[in-house]
Amino acid sequence: MKSIFRSMCVVALALTTVFTMSSFTSQDEDDFDVKQILKEAVEEQNAECPQELGEGMTLDGVYLKNSMMIYQIGAPTEIVEGFALMKSMDEAGTTKMMLEAMLSGGDEVVFLFLMCVEADCSIEFVFASKDGQKVNLYLSDDALEGILAEKYTEEELETIIINLLTSYM
User: Fold this and answer.
1) Which of 1, 54, 55, 123 is least surrounded by CB atoms within 10 angstroms?
2) 68 with 124: CB under 8 angstroms?
3) Domains and CATH numbers, the chain
4) What distance in Å separates the CA atoms of residue 73 and residue 71, rounded to the nearest whole number?
5) pTM of the complete model beyond 0.85
6) For residue 31, what is the DSSP state?
7) Tens-digit pLDDT profile for the chain (169 aa)?
């Protein structure tokens, strides 16, 4: 399980680079379109794929499809099997643990999740091994919103947003 948690943290750190603020800060205040910002962030991230994540994992692509942000991650068989085992035992607990690990990636990840919640966009991680094994971890926008509400007060979330916007202007 220690390796699986470390793998979750590796994915979390990768998420800190998935969302650049350039598309957000270039938006006119009256022309603010969350889905367009997410689309631009995905396009920027895909320009850098494939991307080494560590622990033998690669980010092979990020896609927006039907209100779902999908991360395609290549992973060693043992990591895919570990996630599959955890998911089969407690899917809700596994996805919550994955989300909490990702939130440790920094304020950019928190902001990305806030944007997903605002756009009613869920997140799915597809871990696939070279031998064809695959496991999907799904985080609904409601789950994202719930865990953010558990971990942060509204004031803390506002502070994160203000600090990020200020640092990119």
Assistant:
1) 1
2) yes
3) 2-168 (3.30.300.250)
4) 6
5) no
6) G
7) 334 445 554 554 455 444 444 444 444 444 557 777 778 878 888 888 898 888 888 989 988 898 898 989 999 999 899 889 888 888 778 777 777 777 777 787 788 888 888 888 898 889 999 999 999 988 888 888 888 888 888 888 888 878 777 765 5
